[in-house]
Amino acid sequence: MLLIEEYKAYLDGVEGKSQGTIKQYYNSVKLFSAHMKANKFSITRETVSKIKLSDVYSFLGTLKDTNGNGTRKNKVSALKSFIEFCKDIDLVKHNVILDIKRLPSQEKRVPEYFTIEQCKLLLDSVGSRNKDRDKMIILLFISTGLRLAELCSLDVNCVDSVNPKVTGKGDKERPVYLSDTIREILKEYIAKRPETEEKALFLSERGNRISHSAVQRLCKDAIKRAGLNLDGKTDMCVHILRHTAASIWINDDVDIRTIQELLGHKDISTTQIYTHLAKKKIQQVINNSSLISIL
């Protein structure tokens, strides 16, 4: 078995690591391996100890211009995990990634999102093939801030709970908060849903639980039909709907701590990317103050 595949098998057995993180780590190490093969040598059990810090910096340099510091930090985390695995199985004596100097701080990027008007346009642009299902999926994304995996994990009985639980990031359960209105719309959708013994809320055309890729595809198609611009970031279409939910809450004066809970963020610093929206709204309030009329 190739060393990188041994690492993948190791990751699959690590408790608490989500499939998304495993995929990201594995793909990052594959990318580094391809870089090494093209420039110096193939990474094997025999050669992994020859990896130098300069090799890692060289690899990160190829990402710098197009991927930004955030992705570079993700790659560093993946490589640190990989070399630590190699250390654990006695292929290297020292984890060279630990010698990396602190990377430049990541520039805070303004998350993309849709306005209320654009959301209405998006819902009206859902195709006719599975219209009820697809419209309900998009509505849930923008009203709850669910992640892709969380939405796909929902079962029909979610409407029976005050705050149904979903399997979130790191395979941890968290509550989802449904408004009374969304709950009623969900019940109407379920009443129209084809009768089946499958407990999944959203079904594929074959009657199985809908896949992540199918949800991404239907969201992408609806966004395209609505004429909304994604600037080429079609792989981010579902996450933009999550950002949209947060922007709606900010505009509804929901405080940042509550938004943290609604999004299921473990750390408040993750939620703080949305504070620019709050500041923007504050500026609008100041600009529109009635005090201006007496000046």
Structure description:
With 295 residues, this protein is mostly helical. It has 2 domains: 3-99, Tyrosine recombinase, N-terminal domain (DNA polymerase, domain 1, Orthogonal Bundle), CATH 1.10.150.130; 116-286, hpI Integrase, Chain A (Orthogonal Bundle). Helix content is 55%, strand content 2%. The protein has helices at residues 3-12, 19-39, 53-88, 116-124, 131-144, 148-152, 180-192, 212-225, 237-251, 256-263, 268-271, 275-287; strands at residues 165-167, 173-175. Helix 4 runs antiparallel to helix 5 (131-144). The longest helix has 36 residues, at 53-88. The mean pLDDT is 84.
Question: Characteristics of this structure?
Answer:
295 residues, mainly alpha, DNA polymerase, domain 1, hpI Integrase, Chain A, 2 domains, two-stranded antiparallel sheet, 12 helices, 2% strand, globular
